[in-house]
Amino acid sequence: MSENMKLTLKVWRQKDAKSQGKLETYQLDKISEHMSFLEMLDVLNEQLINTGEEPVAFDHDCREGICGMCSLYINGEAHGPDRGVTTCQLHMRMFKDGDTIYIEPFRSKAFPVIKDLVVDRGSFDRIQHAGGFVSVNTSGNTIDANTIPIPKEDADNAFDAATCIGCGACVATCKNSSAMLFVSAKVAQFSLLPQGKIEAKDRVLNMVHQMDLEGFGNCTNTGACEVECPKGISLENIAIMNKEYFKASTKA
Amino acid sequence: MCPQSENNILFMKSSIGRKILMALSGFFLMFFLAQHFTINFLSVLSEESFNSVSHFMGTNPLIQYALQPVLLFAVIFHLSMGIYLEIKNKAARGAVKYAMNKPGTNAPWVSRNMVYTGIAILLFLGLHFYDFWIPELVTKYVEGDMTGMHAGSFRYYEELVAKFQDPVRVGIYCLAFIFLALHLLHGFQSSFQSVGFNSNRYTPGLKKFGNFFAIVIPLGFIFIALFHYVSHLN
Ligand code: SF4
Ligand code: FES
């Protein structure tokens, strides 16, 4: 049990999108292994404020692994060394007293740094807007989704795909900076369900087109995304998307 | 433009279209590799059957004028698209690199280095064309000698054995096949994923078969080269 870890942090500091950034070194002590990684950063920021320095900007919101805001490339891995967790769910017990921890923003040409550790993931929103939805009639006579029978397996797979929180760890970790895992989760989630089948063709064409426009790289099936994804989104979704895309492009 | 042809053009330019084309050319090349191996292996078993099959492959019009151009196209396409995509992917990573990155924790080496194993294979192909393919084309289509004969008997076996007398060349061949094995260890199963085949039931078995293919075929080629080298040592 350690309530008293001493850590050396190497944190990426960057004034704004236009400035050059660099790694700064900070010393921290009295870090408890029960803290979450973000709590540890809160301690750092308090220390910086007390010494009159600018606190480190980092993204966070729910702090319980559901919003996808907290990003961070920690010691060479998206969301740090643990598996199946976001940064807010990462515990300091994954580190040891005396460790040096590198903290960098998620990097990709399509995720420009705004300030310090905060990146702009608007490219994901634009991909969603291109087709990551089902158009429903909201004029008052909407049919309840539960009245349509759906095979259990399809419902389960669609649900698994729907757990993607759009965090961007897949992109940050991919050697090609490819967004295929994210986009495929969105495509598969709908294409597996009867409600989503109606717009399936346009959805996959438009979302993939937008993904390419945003400047994400090309998937080479290394599988790194699947390992780093906090929600365990499966590569199977990418295979589903490839098939959907092929069908949509070859059928009139 | 009608929407259909528009779709087709988008397909070729899209990330997914390109990956599917990489996979399809990969399938063709793996099929070619398997048949090339089968024929070469005949040279170990019987000089006579190796000669007659080689003569058939070298003179059959369907193979020469239909499959050979497809093969050449597939090789050029697979290589140039692979290198082009690698350059684009490097650019997509952005200008600033991670100060600390541990790619080995989430993806195998073979999957991350396809372009390097691929370029090693390309270099080998240069030597291979110089050794066999170009002389073959010159004999058949420049000199017009379609008989496949030399000094009263079929020349193919002789030519094969002659190339494997130089230990340096045998060494290069062996090394190249190690790179080929590394390339296939990722490429085989990756091609299936790219064309959208991923199923809980079949994919684990397919991956096993892929690893088997990736090791046994290159090992077989190495065996053939060493066999001819060793059995003609004097
Ligand atoms: S697929 Fe996983 S890693 Fe990628 S955005 Fe969704 S939850 Fe995050
Ligand atoms: S802060 Fe919401 S997932 Fe981490």
Can you give a write-up of this model?
The complex is a heterodimer of chains A (252) and B (234). Chain A has 252 residues and is α+β, with helices and mostly antiparallel strands. Chain A has 2 domains: 5-112, Beta-grasp domain (Ubiquitin-like (UB roll)); 121-250, Fumarate Reductase Iron-sulfur Protein, Chain B, domain 2, CATH 1.10.1060.10. Helices cover 36% and strands 13% of the residues of chain A. Chain A contains 9 helices and 7 strands, in the order E-E-H-E-E-E-E-E-H-H-H-H-H-H-H-H. Chain A has helices at residues 37-50, 122-131, 152-162, 169-173, 180-191, 194-197, 200-213, 224-228, 236-250; strands at residues 5-13, 22-31, 73-74, 77-78, 100-104, 113-115, 118-119. In chain A, helix 3 packs antiparallel against helix 5 (180-191). The longest helix of chain A is centred in the last third of the chain and has 15 residues, at 236-250. Chain A is elongated. The termini of chain A are far apart. The mean pLDDT of chain A is 95. With 234 residues, chain B is mostly helical. Chain B has a single domain (13-231), classed as 3 helical TM bundles of succinate and fumarate reductases, CATH 1.20.1300.10. A two-stranded antiparallel ribbon of chain B has the order 1-2. In chain B, helix 8 (167-194) runs antiparallel to helix 9. The radius of gyration of chain B is 21 Å and the shape is globular. Chain B starts with a helix and ends with a helix. The model of chain B has no long low-confidence stretch (mean pLDDT 93). The interface between A and B is large, with 55 and 48 residues.
